[in-house]
Amino acid sequence: MNAHFLSALPDQFTTDRLLLKKTTLQDAFPLFQIWSDSAVAEYMNIEKFSSVYQAEEMIKAIAAEPDAIRYTIFSQEKVIGSFGINEVNVANNTAEIGYELAKNYWRKGIMTELLRYFLPLLQNKLHFSGVYAKVIPENTASTILLKKLDFEISGEAQEWDQDNKQLSTVLIFEHNFKKTSTF
Question: Where's the N-acetyltransferase domain (predicted)?
Fold first, then answer.
């Protein structure tokens, strides 16, 4: 894989209920509104945002990473969250995915729909052997989602919790495309 392999992914795509577009600075204010919600930030392992500037900086930082890509999630032309690849492990041919939704959209099948569309893209277009997600143990909705899509807990890691300013445990969920492909 070369440094620009993520460019093989579309700039936007649609599912039955969603439109996903590559995140731009134009999305900063609506994403700020989501990332400044303490209930959402708690599961993102970040301190809730207090200014649009923080959202702009996060968007710029992700855009500058060659092995990361972020999509803004729209439902009926309203920004309801974001999703993307946080990191690629070239040695293992895997990618870390991450996502968040505005609280009003939790537990409505949105992430199931999105992942059922996007995971085959990662397998078939980028030829990843698998994906993984890091989940705070208290995030039961994400745990249920990932298990439903045949992700398995492969371990735990200690990560710096921006909100609590201490190390905290995250669960690592892996989906091996060669082992399972239930989308």
Answer: 30-178
Asked whether residue 180 is assigned to any structural domain, the reply reads: no
For residue 92, give Cα distances in angstroms to 28, 31, 75, 172: 33, 31, 34, 15
12-38 residue pLDDT tens: 999 999 999 999 999 999 999 999 999
Check which CATH number belongs to the domain holding 38 and give it.
3.40.630.30
Question: How is residue 90 annotated by DSSP?
Answer: T
User: Cβ of 16: how many Cβ atoms within 10 Å?
Assistant: 6
- What's this model's pTM, rounded to 2 decimal places? 0.91
Q: CA quadruple 179, 136, 102, 78: dihedral positive or negative?
A: negative
List the domain range (segments joined by +) for residue 45. 5-129
Query: Which one-letter DSSP state was computed for residue 47?
Result: P
